[in-house]
Design goal:
The chain has about 375 residues and is of the alpha+beta class. It folds into three domains: about 5-155, Globin-like; about 155-215; about 225-370, Histidine kinase-like ATPase, C-terminal domain (Heat Shock Protein 90, 2-Layer Sandwich), CATH 3.30.565.10. About 55% of the residues lie in helices and about 10% in strands. The protein is built from 13 helices and seven strands. The strands form two sheets. The protein has a five-stranded mixed sheet. The protein has a two-stranded antiparallel ribbon with strand order 1-3. A hairpin with a 3-residue loop joins strand 6 and strand 7. Helix 2 packs antiparallel against helix 7, helix 4 packs across helix 8 (about 125-180) and helix 11 packs antiparallel against helix 13 (about 340-350).
């Protein structure tokens, strides 16, 4: 019996095995009823059987095995795609989703080969079946990943929005306590609150900007005429107040006037300086050098200390990358690993560039901002 006919005639027993396996995928499957466990298994198998009965060229078969089968414009959602969405919403992880297809492949082929005995199974059917399952798996994995990304981005957006109000309350209260002049203990506590609030604000800003880039919006910039000498001096004054134990130096050379988004470039500089403070030698200053010429303004942030490993340097502007803490070798405390990524996105939004270099004595980040685009 050809495999397509076998699948259609033995649909119930095949789907029953699918259900039995799906029930083992805990904790997501715990408490799920039969209908939910089976989900779109029958429709997926019907699509596979239909595919087996459809004539295909060798190239078409190969493309299908790679998950590249042509999709008609405005084609409806396939059963495999719908299955992936429902599994994602049901709490399954991607390994469990893939395991369902692996178990389905094995059970169908085993049952069919037993049914074929003593005759040998049709080899072309085996190849075509595997290609059809691979196509369904590719569709499921793609939609599952999109669903997970969408849920994560929605969560991050809601988190960023909901945290702003309580954070603002903390910052306002800290400023009020600092203004009371109620003694050294109160002033010290207020200063700690202000430093922590500023750090939380920085993390929150990075998180929200990261979410925008993952949604495809990029970093929003509003260019205006600004003098980076003033913008950066103000940012460094704020950083010195939050990090009084760190010496932060600013050198200015040439004209720093231009058309950029001043607030975004403050954020860029703040992220670079905080990175230098976190990973640089604690007894050496962080140096910021701003050099303006006719074509561009170049911003360098330098710190002394151990160099960055070459393997990390290659991906240092990737999101969620963190280097080892300078004191205990662990990931940087209080860091999401987004600061340098956001800095690079801000530079790109200004049609600029950012690069890093590091040796055994110094690490430097260089940002180039063109005066015209």
């Amino acid at each position: 019996m050809r495999l397509a006919d076998f699948i259609l005639r033995n649909m119930e027993s095949i789907v029953a095995q699918w259900e039995a396996f799906a029930a083992t995928l805990v904790p997501a499957a715990a408490g799920m009823e039969s209908l939910a466990l089976r989900d779109h298994a029958q429709q997926i198998l019907e699509a596979v059987a239909k595919d087996l009965r459809t004539s295909q060229t060798r190239d078409a078969q190969h493309q299908e095995s790679l998950g590249r089968a042509p999709v008609p414009v405005d084609a409806p959602e396939t059963a495999a795609q719908t299955h992936a969405i429902l599994r994602a919403r049901g709490g399954f992880n991607i390994k469990q989703l893939v395991a369902e297809y692996r178990a389905l492949r094995a059970s169908v082929l085993r049952l069919w080969m037993e049914d074929c005995q003593p005759n040998a199974p049709d080899l072309d059917d085996v190849i075509r079946f595997n290609e059809a399952i691979d196509q369904a798996l590719a569709e499921s994995v793609g939609f599952f990943s999109e669903q997970v990304d969408q849920a994560r981005n929605l969560f991050l957006g809601m988190l960023g929005h909901d945290l702003r109000s309580p954070l603002q309350t903390i910052q306002v209260t800290a400023s009020y306590l600092a203004a009371l002049n109620a003694g050294e203990r109160v002033s010290g506590a207020a200063a700690r609150l202000m430093r922590s609030g500023a750090r939380m604000q920085s993390l929150l800003d990075d998180l929200c900007d990261y979410n925008r880039t993952r949604l495809g919006f990029g970093i929003n910039v509003i260019p205006a005429s600004v003098n980076l000498a003033d913008v950066f001096a103000d940012e460094l004054d704020q950083l010195r107040a939050v990090h009084p134990d760190r010496q932060i130096e600013l050198e200015l050379h040439g004209d720093a006037q231009g058309v950029w988004d001043g607030q975004r470039l403050q954020q860029l500089l703040g992220n670079l300086v905080l990175n230098a403070d976190r990973y640089g030698a604690p007894d050496s200053p962080v140096r910021v050098v701003v050099t303006g010429d006719e074509a561009e303004v170049r911003v360098e942030v330098r710190n002394s200390g151990p160099g960055i490993e070459r393997s990390l340097l290659k991906r240092i502007f990737d999101p969620l990358q963190r280097g080892p803490d300078r004191e205990n070798g662990r990931d940087g405390e209080g860091s999401l690993g987004l600061g340098l990524y956001i800095a690079s996105e801000i530079a790109k939004a200004h049609h600029g560039t950012i690069e890093a270099r590091s040796d055994e004595t110094e690490t430097a980040f260089t940002v180039r901002l063109p005066r015209s685009t």
